[in-house]
């Protein structure tokens, strides 16, 4: 079983989020920061659009030959002295990880940021089995203290303000002076650095994710700005890499193409601070590094997405640009989506992984403005894929009866153009007449969902089609 | 059926392939052997002084500091000066890189320690395998010469790079790695470093020195 989801309650989640003052304040940071930074980085690189095409093509090529690249990768990892484990689902992955930790006699485990580790819910599982997992990415550390899921895939604590972080640090770091000054964000960072430095040095096992896996060399790659992923993997005796199977790319040249679009799309950096290429365990020529190197390759629903219209989603490199540019994400934040992956990419991926019956609201929570697709570094047609989910939801009779009967009624008229024109003309004339005084309606039958929040503008009395006909006639005459 | 076999069977069923098709195997083999280059930005495709200048500009844009010295003999003095200017203690940890070892550290008052870091060092120096002008990135290779812990544990990390090792693009560095380690092989770790450690996790405010070095200082050796 995957980590628990509240996606079925999306509507309630969203309503709560809209009224959460702290959250709304924090979400302003997303709107202001990420968009401009990405644009500036893209503008500075004339080849950016060509690199996006290249990135898309590399991922498509790899997915079409995924079985063969996985075999090549596995062989290379083994040749470099590492171990490869395969997990069909979250349970198997957790079991494999626990066994490796037990074999290493692990008491504490440090963790780099990894979305797949959230997906399989590894932290609670390790805790339940007497092993203490410590998140080391600053944002992940903060949300671990709060027992929350990340609200953003690259900025997990973006929903919080500094005062909330201060409260959490005071609550948890009780060994420190209660009167210490934590009024500046840098003081919070310094405190976390000192607390986590001890954890890094004490950990028995380090778990990281992987942004990419390279078939050519059997290499796993992590990309961070903090350096926490590196301390997680070079200090303990054992390094475990968790990766879903679609992280593969063929060669070092291919991954360099993807790295050129990743940071620019994510944070607007030319390159992230630390890009780390790891191949196997410590060697005779090494003075440091892990003695054991394990890779856990996790399917958890991916292989079934291949060959379907949702295969395109497997190109995703988890940069977060789609949510950074999404008006729905800006309004409700990441937690409202109710599972691990928020925003447009979550709206497409979540139904694939936990079922459209549970996550059907997510692809509906879109204005279809298309900004997500326009910034996606691997050009995933996110709006199209959300529409596919809506169609499937409809086909499987998961949409509410009122929506279905409304769509049915509309479909009846739409298939009969003459009747459609007659009906809309009558309706618009009536509404135009009724609203001629105020120019708007504060109430209309069957339209509470609209008029509860805003007025409905009164039609002019003429339909669009009628006006089109009239003006076209005027032009040709 | 083992998890491995079932995952491969699922992938092949979804893709509508057997896995034994000669043409597919050939395509994959070919790509792994030829490793075709993709789109290489024109920005880095400059040479000589222009390339060093670009590297410097980009490294500084990533909030690293950069000094140039004319020969390896000048490196210790330059580093001693950097530490003094920032009111840092005159201590320095390094691996046993022969290029670093042969430098005249005795000309300075620096207290030198050797080997990997245990987590309490304030300053460390490493020698880079190469640099990338395109983004001001340094490429580090693990080993007793330059232990990986030195890249991350000290507060102040100094990286020495030879001007001749500063390449236009990442692909050129991979070319050198392949030449040194063999095509298809890698050192245990390659670290690309672009600036000092940072985090934006608190209110999207950029703060330096999250878990890794608070300062990254680069010494470019021109000889």
Automatic annotation (TrEMBL), chain A:
Gene3D superfamilies in UniProt: 3.30.70.20, NagB/RpiA/CoA transferase-like (3.40.50.10420)
Gene Ontology annotations of biological process type: lactate metabolic process
Residue span, 4Fe-4S ferredoxin-type domain: 306-337
Entries under InterPro entries matching the protein: 4Fe4S_Fe-S-bd, 4Fe4S_Fe_S_CS, FTHF_cligase-like_sf, LUD_dom, LutB/LldF, LutB_C, NagB/RpiA_transferase-like
This protein's record includes keyword Lyase: no
Signal sequence, start to end: none
GO molecular function: 4 iron, 4 sulfur cluster binding; metal ion binding
Keywords, in A-Z order: 4Fe-4S, Iron, Iron-sulfur, Metal-binding
Record bears the keyword NADP: no
PANTHER family associated with the record: LACTATE UTILIZATION PROTEIN B
NCBIfam families with a match to the protein in the record: LutB/LldF family L-lactate oxidation iron-sulfur protein
Annotated protein name in UniProt: L-lactate dehydrogenase complex protein LldF
Source organism of the structure: Microvirga guangxiensis
TrEMBL record, chain B:
SUPFAM superfamilies: NagB/RpiA/CoA transferase-like
Organism: Microvirga guangxiensis
Lineage, top ranks: Bacteria, Pseudomonadati, Pseudomonadota, Alphaproteobacteria, Hyphomicrobiales
Residue span, LUD domain: 126-221
Domain of life: Bacteria
Any matching Pfam family: LUD_dom
Listed name of the protein: L-lactate dehydrogenase complex protein LldG
PANTHER family named in the record: LACTATE UTILIZATION PROTEIN C (PTHR43682:SF1)
């Amino acid at each position: 079983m995957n980590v628990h989801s509240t996606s079925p309650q999306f509507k309630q989640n969203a309503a709560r989020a809209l009224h959460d003052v702290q959250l709304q304040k924090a979400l302003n940071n997303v709107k202001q920061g990420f968009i401009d930074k990405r644009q500036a980085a893209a503008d500075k690189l004339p080849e950016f659009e060509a690199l996006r095409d290249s990135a898309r093509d590399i991922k498509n090529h790899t997915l079409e030959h995924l079985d063969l690249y996985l075999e090549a990768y596995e062989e290379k990892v083994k040749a470099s002295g590492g171990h490869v484990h395969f997990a069909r689902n979250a349970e198997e992955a957790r079991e494999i990880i626990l066994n490796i930790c037990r074999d290493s006699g692990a008491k504490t485990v440090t963790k780099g940021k990894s979305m797949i580790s959230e997906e399989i819910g590894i932290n609670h599982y390790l805790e339940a089995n007497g092993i203490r997992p410590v998140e080391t990415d600053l944002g992940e550390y903060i949300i671990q203290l709060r027992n929350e899921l990340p609200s953003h895939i690259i900025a997990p604590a973006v929903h919080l303000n500094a005062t909330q972080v201060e409260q959490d640090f005071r609550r948890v770091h009780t060994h420190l002076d209660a009167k210490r000054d934590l009024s500046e964000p840098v003081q919070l960072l310094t405190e976390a650095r000192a607390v986590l430095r001890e954890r890094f040095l004490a950990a028995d096992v380090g778990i990281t994710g992987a942004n990419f896996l390279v078939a050519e060399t059997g290499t796993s790659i992590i990309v961070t700005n903090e350096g926490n992923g590196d301390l997680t993997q070079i200090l303990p005796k054992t390094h475990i890499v968790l990766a879903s199977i679609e992280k593969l790319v063929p060669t070092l040249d291919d991954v360099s193409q993807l790295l050129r679009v990743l940071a620019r799309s994510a944070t607007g950096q030319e390159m992230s601070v630390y890009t780390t290429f790891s191949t196997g365990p410590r060697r005779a020529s090494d003075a440091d590094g892990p003695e054991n190197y394990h890779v856990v390759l996790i399917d958890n629903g991916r292989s079934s997405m291949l060959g379907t219209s949702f295969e395109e989603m497997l190109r995703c490199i988890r940069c977060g640009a789609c949510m950074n540019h999404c008006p729905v994400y800006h309004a409700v934040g990441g937690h409202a989506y109710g599972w691990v992956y928020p925003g447009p990419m979550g709206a497409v991926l979540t139904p694939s992984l936990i079922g459209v019956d549970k996550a059907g609201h997510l692809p509906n929570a879109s204005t279809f403005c298309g900004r997500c697709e326009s910034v996606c570094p691997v050009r995933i047609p996110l709006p199209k894929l959300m529409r596919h989910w809506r169609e499937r939801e409809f086909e499987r009779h998961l949409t509410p009866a009122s929506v279905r009967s409304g769509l049915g009624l509309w479909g009846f008229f739409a298939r009969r153009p003459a009747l459609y024109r007659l009906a809309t003309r009558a309706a618009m004339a009536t509404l135009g007449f009724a609203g001629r005084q105020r120019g708007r309606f504060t109430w209309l039958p069957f339209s509470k969902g609209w008029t509860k929040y805003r007025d409905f503008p009164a039609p002019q009395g003429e339909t669009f089609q009628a006006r089109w006909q009239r003006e076209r006639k005027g032009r040709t005459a | 059926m083992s998890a491995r076999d079932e995952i491969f069977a699922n992938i092949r069923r979804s893709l509508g392939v057997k896995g034994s098709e000669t043409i597919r195997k050939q395509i994959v083999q070919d790509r792994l052997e030829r490793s075709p280059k993709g789109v290489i930005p024109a920005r880095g495709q400059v040479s000589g002084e222009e390339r060093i200048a670009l590297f410097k500009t980009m490294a500084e844009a990533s909030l690293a500091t950069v000094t140039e010295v004319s020969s390896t003999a000048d490196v210790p003095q330059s580093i001693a000066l950097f530490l003094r200017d920032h009111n840092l203690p005159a201590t320095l940890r390094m691996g046993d890189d022969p290029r670093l070892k042969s430098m005249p550290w005795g000309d300075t008052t620096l207290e030198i320690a050797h080997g990997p870091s245990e987590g309490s060092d304030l300053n460390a120096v490493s020698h880079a395998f190469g640099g990338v002008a395109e983004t001001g990135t340094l490429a580090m290779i693990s080993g007793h010469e330059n232990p990986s812990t030195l890249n991350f544990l000290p507060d102040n990390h100094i990286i020495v790079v030879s001007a001749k090792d500063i390449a236009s693009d990442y692909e050129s560095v991979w070319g050198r790695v392949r030449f040194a380690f063999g095509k298809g092989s890698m050192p245990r770790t390659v670290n690309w470093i672009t600036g000092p450690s940072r985090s934006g996790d608190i209110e999207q405010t950029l703060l330096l020195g999250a878990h890794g070095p608070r300062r990254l200082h680069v010494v470019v050796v021109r000889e």
